[in-house]
UniProtKB/TrEMBL annotation:
Upper taxonomic lineage: Eukaryota, Viridiplantae, Streptophyta, Embryophyta, Tracheophyta
Reactions that this protein is recorded to catalyse: alpha-D-glucose 1,6-bisphosphate + L-seryl-[protein] = O-phospho-L-seryl-[protein] + alpha-D-glucose 6-phosphate; O-phospho-L-seryl-[protein] + alpha-D-glucose 1-phosphate = alpha-D-glucose 1,6-bisphosphate + L-seryl-[protein]; alpha-D-glucose 1-phosphate = alpha-D-glucose 6-phosphate
Domain Alpha-D-phosphohexomutase alpha/beta/alpha: 202-327, 378-464, 469-570
Region (Disordered): 50-69
The species this protein was found in: Eutrema salsugineum
Protein name (record): phosphoglucomutase (alpha-D-glucose-1,6-bisphosphate-dependent)
Cofactor dependency: Mg(2+)
EC number of this enzyme: 5.4.2.2
Amino acid sequence: MNRMRKVRVNCTNGDESVASRINRIPPSASQATVAIDAGTRGNTTYARTLQRQAGEPGRRNEGRARRTHFPIFKEKTHISSPDLVSSLASPMEGKVFQKFNVEQCCYLQNKQFKTRYQREPNPYMSALLPCPRGKLAWNLNSSLRAHTLFKYQNTAISKQTTFYCNAALSSASVPSLDKTDFLKLQNGSDIRGVAVPGVEGEPVSLHEPVTEAIAAAFGQWLLHKKKAESRRLRVSVGHDSRISAQTLLEAVSRGLGVSGLDVVQFGLASTPAMFNSTLTEDESFLCPADGAIMITASHLPYNRNGFKFFTSDGGLGKVDIKNILERAADIYKNISDENLRKSQTGNSSTKKVDYMAVYTSGLVKAVRRAAGDLEKPLVGFHIVVDAGNGAGGFFAAKVLEPLGAITTGSQFLEPDGMFPNHIPNPEDKTAMEAITKAVLDNKADLGIIFDTDVDRSAAVDSTGREFNRNRLIALLSAIVLEEHPGTTIVTDSVTSDGLTSFIEKKLGGKHHRFKRGYKNVIDEAIRLNSSGEETHLAIETSGHGALKENHWLDDGAYLMVKILNKLASARAAGSGSGSEVLTDLVEGLEEPKVALELRLKIDKNHPDLEGKDFREYGETVLQHLSNSIETNPNLKRAPVNYEGIRVSGFGGWFLLRLSLHDPVLPLNIEAQSEDDAVKLGLVVANAVKEFNALDTSALSKLTHSS
Ligand SMILES: O=P(O)(O)OC[C@H]1O[C@H](O)[C@H](O)[C@@H](O)[C@@H]1O
């Protein structure tokens, strides 16, 4: 039972994880060769940073030596995976299948390790230190990640390193997670969790075994939905640039295999591309996929990750996600090492295709079509892209350049899951400042910015004026209403009164202000259409937007394509040659002098909650505010309103509502002066002052600022 397994690790550019390869080695084998991926670009950057810190020359990105927390094995192979480190350091965290003799491994692998550690101690290294006689448990399915293992590129060393593991199954305990733990991972119609350790107070919740169970559950759900016990189903899987992407990709693939589904890996992809793969009819790209999974946590910090699921009907909603998580909890209890091994040796197949080529060529074709089938309708336009080191870098080289645009000055196109430049989020002030600066510095005609997984976007005109929030909606509404006069535009709840009058009075359309949440907005547009009210655009102030002509696909890149179409067709018709065509379209949109959002937190543990759910408490606050409005002659409740309390008064308006996900009451205020904003703030402050579990400090700051 305790026979030592010797695994020879061979550094190549393959991209399979060491762990999954080791998994496939029959227990009887005494020696095997395993390939290690040299890494994604982001991780290569870490490697170079580490090289510099080790006094060795880095090759590029000299200015970015800010990531210092990865451990180094000075020779041959470097283990830099924080998740591996945590598996070693906290053996109870994951399912433990094997024991890994760290002492022996470190010693045999690297005699200089100890010296190096003494010189440069850090917490991860100490977790890996050849420990006091210690045998630490190693979750074999955990990521001895391809991209987190690399060797110094500038040292002429052997390409092989040896790990010793014993092959005995461990009886160490498996963390017992139940349905409640799984349901905590639900975030509306997404799944989100912590995938990388190291952030205080944020323990890992998206372990690999949890991920396997979730993917297996999606497989089960899909089989049930498609009533397809006898037909082979395939699921496409893509990911954004997060550092945990590869680990979760492998875990998702294993989980789908457990349910007997075929896996088609797309690699780095966008969320809309994943949905699109369920619609594409092209067998050479193994499409259509019966289902799709995007591994992403959108704009959240580097340590988070999650999943979005699609079928050809669109993104899965809350009810289905809950169902999948409940199934996952059951699977988790019963999944065994044996199931996982079978999934890798069984009938399921895992293939890779470059689907982004199909998706991007669809975007290119759409612009060409709009410009009367011109091959390069954007010749002469200078457009800069800011992908925030997420997955959207493709837009410059694969969409704009084939259309003839110049893209010099584009920035942060390379995927880097530490998001070193700014948060990839068009709602973020710093991000918008970054793209605005790039437009002005490069004297570009237009700037385009995406979030991490490219389902949200915003733009900037040549003068540096932002097309985001209400202005982006106004622009898209103008474009869509030219094509479909009189149509209804569905938006989220925090849109301005100015937007309503712009859509209705200037553009002749109808504004249907619904709830916050991209899925809510899209579903409402679909519902309106099916009930006979024509609508072609569902869009949020967050930069999410979907068009009927694009299968109601929530696609930030397609929103930008609509803008490009406008530029290209105006040029083709001789009616404009720069972004003023766009700026002119939003002429007449009234904008408030003051627009702010304060997020008032509910303390879930406050005694005033009396054990109630924070939502119930929030509803009580809203009810109280509602009652207080009735008696105030200066205020008027919005006649039609689908969430929270929206009130007009003092020349502006406010909306207090419950956040979709968090124990927070977001308060949006728009007014024509600071004083009026304060008056509106005071209305809310007076109504909520007795609610001690509500953190009103931001509101106090506003009301005391005058
Ligand atoms: O309700 P909030 O906390 O403001 O969050 C609302 C937002 O949540 C997520 O980010 C969704 O992707 C958005 O579509 C939604 O608008």
